[in-house]
Each structure stands twice: as C-alpha cells, then as structure tokens.
Amino acid sequence: MTDFVLSGNYAIGILIAFGIVWVAWGWYLGRNNRTIEDYALAGRNVGFAMATATAMATWITSNTTLVAPQLTYQFGVWGMLGYSMAALGLLLFAPLAERIKTLLPEGFTSGDFIYTRYGRFAWGAFIIISLCYALGWLVSLGMAGGLLLSSLSELDYMTGMTAILIICVGYTLLGGLKAVIATDFVQSVVIISGVVIVAWVCIDKVGFSTMHTTLTTQQPELLNLLFPAAVMFFFNNIFFGIGEIFHSNVWWSRAFAFGKGIGKKSYLAAGLLWLPIPIVTGFIALAASSLNLIPPSADMVGPMVAAKLLGSIGAVFIFIIVFSALASSMDSLLAATSDLLTQDIYKKLLRPNAGSDQLLRMNRYIVIGLGVGTWCVAAFKLATLGALLNFTGAFVASTIWPIVYGLFRPKLNGTWAGIAMVAGTSAGLIGYFVVGFYVAALLSCGVSLVCCRIGIWRSTEEYQWRELKEEEQS
C-alpha cells in the first residue's frame, strides 16, 4: 500500500493519547491492590456485566479483526464461517467455568488444577504447552499492532508493535486484573459499534451483487462450498478454538475471579455476542477484489479495505477499533500468563513459602519480562498472523480431553493425561508441517482423545474430588 491514509504525526498523536488514558486509568483502578488476590483475581467478585464484557472483548483479538479477514480472503465463505466457530470455545467453557469454581473455589491458575488432579508429569507437559501458546499469542498480538500502523499510516511495523506493548504492559502492570476487566468493558463497546458501522458502509458502497459478480469472475473458489482445504480449516478451527479456551489460564483466571454463579452465565452470553463478529469482519475482506486492492500480505486485507471505504476519518475509526481489540486481548494474556509463571513456576518450584507481598512483586516483574520477551520475538516477524497462530493449534487441542475428563471423569490418571498431551501435540506438529496448518488441531485433538480413552479403559482407580479442596486448604 503506497498511499497511506494517516500521517505519521497523526498516528503518533493517537497512540500517545491512548497510552496516557489507559495507563492513568490502570493506575487509578489498581491503587488499592494490596494482595496477590486483589491484583491477579480482582478480589474474586466480578459481576455479570463486567464478566461478560471481559470474556467477549478478550476473545475479540487481532485474530478476529485481522486474521478473520485474512482467512476469508484466502478461503472465502468457509474461512468466515470457520472462524466464527471459535465461539463454541466460549459456549462450551460455560459449564466448565461453573465446575472449576465449585471444585477449586480458592484456585489461582489452570496449572493448579492439573498439578493437583494429575501430578507432576502431566503438569509439566501442560505448562510447556501453555507457555508455548501464550508466547505465540502474545507475539501475534504484537505483530498485529505493527501491521495495523504500517497499513493505516506512515509509521513502520516496529513503531506500532512497540507502542501497543508499552501501553498494555503499562496499565496491566499498574492495575492488574481490575484494570484489564474495566478497560475490556469499554473496548467491547467500541469494537461492537465499530464493526457494525464498517460492515454497513461496505454493503452500502460496494453491495452484495457487485461483490458476488466480482468474486464469481475473478476468485470463484472463494464461493465454493466444496473447497477442500477450506472445509478442513472449518473443522480444524472448531477444535483449535475449543483448545485455546479450555487450556488457557486467561479463561481459568476469570472463572476464579467471577463471583459465585456468574461464570456459566457470562461465558454463554459472551459466546453468543461474539459469534457474529468474525463473520462481519471476514465479510469485508470479500470486497477487496471489487475495490481493486491487492494487499502485500494477506493479514493486512482487513484494515486496507476499511481504510479504502472510509477514507481518512474512517482510518482513525478503524485504528481505534483494531487497537481496542488488540489491547483487550494483550492485557488479558499478560495478566494470565504472569499469574501462571508466578504461581506455577516461581511458587511451586522456586519459593513454595513465598508470601503475598513477594508473589505480588514477582508477578509485576514477570509482566515486564513478558513484554520485553514478546518485543524481542515479534521484531523478527517470522510468519503471518494466521500461520503463527495456527501453529499453536497443534499444542492447545491436545489439552481438551485431559481437561474435560479431568473435571468430570475420575478414572483418567496423570500418566495417561500427560501421554495424551505429548502425543497429541506431536501428531499435530507433524500434520502442520507435512499436510498444512488446517489439520494440526484436528490431529492433535484426535490422538489425545484416543490416548485418554485408553487411559480410562486401563484405569483401576478413581480420583476423589475432595482431594482438590484438601490440597487448596493445606
């Protein structure tokens, strides 16, 4: 894209304004954080409105606003619909959230459950998978910040990537989960309003008939419901989305933070509200051919189409929407990953007797470290957003069945749960490199399921749920 819509000074001004507002608000919200529970879990009493907003806004990531258009541009209708199936992760996690809160009312992380339920071997495999995913998602969010600015302004990739990291690290560091949830609430309103407006303008200026005629002539495969790779992607993305949510401490920490009886209702509402958003954001990518746009990278198609449709004022509008989507996910991931590292690595392995003040201080150091580490990796921009994110599908899909069986079935033991995660991840990675990214999660989930079923079949003992609460109280 050679004709940038925003000048460099204008874009920098927006970034500075965002940075000041969000960081100041983060400080204000976090000024009364006194304990690790205040900082990491917002006092464990988050209400329904805030709970629903933060769950939905966190799931509206760079992937929804940038990768959904990319996949629609590459796979057509199936790309759009396939990405929307990630809503199943939120919907299916709803009963799990209620079960998690019941079994571990004082829990901190997903790692707490795996360690207590399955033991050290399965816990080690789970932590490695969780950290690989978290780093992959953090890097993809940093990359998306750079791509946003480079596609909508004269600023370069490194500037955008650096800016969003500094802003999100700043207010997460100062405010903890309270700041994350409060900013998510505002960002969710901005995102939903913006997406609806962009879609309406696309329909008004381009129109369904023009888009259909252009696609039929120039890219008929995008309308082909029997497009093989796209069909595989559709089913692959279902298990990828479920695996992303089921295993990630981003969603477990919210289950622990939400008030009693809130988790199930909020996740159901968030899933239903999120479902149409990737369809709408993906839809605008189908207008690229009608607008004679050829993006230099497929993951830039969304903002380029929006900027073309809305002009200079619209570019600012789109900038704010996508920036809100990026921030609402990055802050959540920074907070949840720092909790995981603090509770599962620092406390369990290094300082088992650490007090609340020590844990709070270490948690903040880790937030800074995650920001620096993400910047170092994202600076190399080794892959497109879609390729990077789908690589992690091979990891996360292997955790689905060990978590589900671990929460509801007492016969699966730690050895077979660990084998399921290791074997599933290995199969998914082989599929990713040998066949394509669109089979990685499918293979990972399938192999993991087989291992879990064998483990249940061979088991002669049943886990006693009271051991979870006894471990918490000890």
Structure keywords:
single chain; 474 residues; mainly alpha; Sodium/glucose cotransporter; 78% helix
What does this structure look like?
The radius of gyration is 22 Å and the shape is globular. The relative contact order is 0.18. α4 crosses α15, α5 packs parallel to α11 and α20 packs antiparallel against α21 (440-458). The mean pLDDT is 84. It has 474 residues and is mainly alpha-helical. It contains 22 helices and no strands. It is 78% helix and 0% strand. The protein has one domain (8-381): Sodium/glucose cotransporter (Up-down Bundle). It holds the Pfam family SSF. Its main location: membrane. It is found in: Membrane.
CATH topology type: Sodium/glucose cotransporter
Q: How far is the first residue's CA from the last residue's CA?
A: 60 Å
Assign the CATH superfamily.
Sodium/glucose cotransporter
Low-pLDDT sequence parts: none
SS summary, helix count: 22
Q: How many distinct domains? A: 1
Examine the secondary-structure arrangement and name the CATH architecture. Up-down Bundle
Which structural class is indicated by helix and strand composition?
Answer: mainly alpha
The helicity comes to over 70%
The average pLDDT value, as a whole number, equals 84
Count the beta strands. Answer: 0
Query: What Rg do the Cα atoms give?
Result: 22 Å
Strand fraction band?
under 5%
Helix-strand string: HHHHHHHHHHHHHHHHHHHHHH
